[in-house]
Sequence to fold (436 residues):
Amino acid sequence: NLSYKLDRAFKTLKGQGQITEVNVATTVKEIRRALVDADVNFKVAKDVTDRIKEEALGRDVLISVSPGQLLVKITQEELAKMMGEKQVDISTEGSPSTILISGLQGSGKTTFSGKLANRLKKQGKQVLLAACDIYRPAAIDQLKVLGEQIGVEVYAEPENKDAVKIAKNAIKFAKDNGKSIVIVDTAGRLAVDEVMMKEISSLKKELNPSETLFVVDSMTGQDAVNTAKTFNEQLDFDGVVLTKLDGDTRGGAALSIRTVVEKPIKFISSGEKMEAIDLFYPDRMAQRILGMGDVVSLVEKAQETFDQEETNRLSKKIRKNQFDFEDFLSQLQQIKKMGNVKDLLGMLPGMGKQIKDLDIDDDAFKPVEAIIRSMTYEERSNPELMNASRKKRIAEGSGTSVQEINNLLKQFKDMRKMMKTMNKMSGSKRGLAGFN
Ligand code: GDP
Ligand code: MG
Fold:
């Protein structure tokens, strides 16, 4: 599973304080392998991972995110770019506008035709489905059943063996009957073959459709890319439809088709229900492939809000074991700037459910802030100074109790201890300075 493998690749970066040439190289190699295993074309996988590496080395790691998280973000950006970045809709010009559906047999053309008709009908359009698969009698029935289900008229001529003529008649019928869109469902074969290509090419030439879509089963892996290439050479289609994304697909086809044929993926289809059709959004697909919860938006938020200089200053102090209450306060401010604390925690993978019923509000840090603000500057930078009479004074000043101050001091001590351990783990010699 691609998501799983990518997740594992990112884990190799976990616990590393920085993105370096060496640790990125290892992770990027694993990302590449995961992509190739998921049927992404090797050259495409190489290009994208080269870009990920370049991006990663050029960016600073914020104190609030791990290098692994940052790399997830970069990977998602690059994957989205690879799939075209923006969502591209179909054209519905012309009266009626004609949408030609192409693809191999079994790719999901007829099902998709029904879904698209349903979608357009819901947008208030007058839609006609044209049954131009002349080879299988059952194909007409299949379309008719779908049409009935969604309340869209189906044009068919069971005796006619000329797909182009049927399509032209359908368009005429549409004009005469106030339909604004004709969806032309066509015949496919099990593999690319000359007769099929001739027929679909002449349909394209004769009908001059406003939109030609190529439908491809996303479960067919590398083959999907090759088929797309052949159809594109013949048809110069406008967009791709990826079907059967509901199965346990490896998803790689989605990633490479765009790069190989340079045509946008316009729809994804995932299921046999008539509602199971979605516009294709590259960023969402990238996120889905990565399956990393909302790490990406967490990183985005952190990047937006965290003041880079302050972050550098703090991380230096942490490395030197000089982190004090003054820094703690500054960090609290930054966390608050990032918005709702509960939302923030909820974005971490696996945290959503656990904190759902917890009562964390943004005021949770208020007493802590009050306590720190009631300390003198000396006390903030040197918590060891704290004694009974100071605590009493601070408790009165902040409207808290000595007990609360003791709790905070203990938490702070634990936090420092953890930072010290982390410094040691990263093998840093810089952690020798400071006190505690
Ligand atoms: P066509 O030969 O290209 O017209 O393909 P069909 O529309 O007849 O679909 C072939 C088979 O795939 C049928 O059994 C459909 O029910 C099924 N199918 C089509 N689209 C999807 C999809 O998005 N998900 C799943 N799971 N099955 C689909
Ligand atoms: Mg069909």
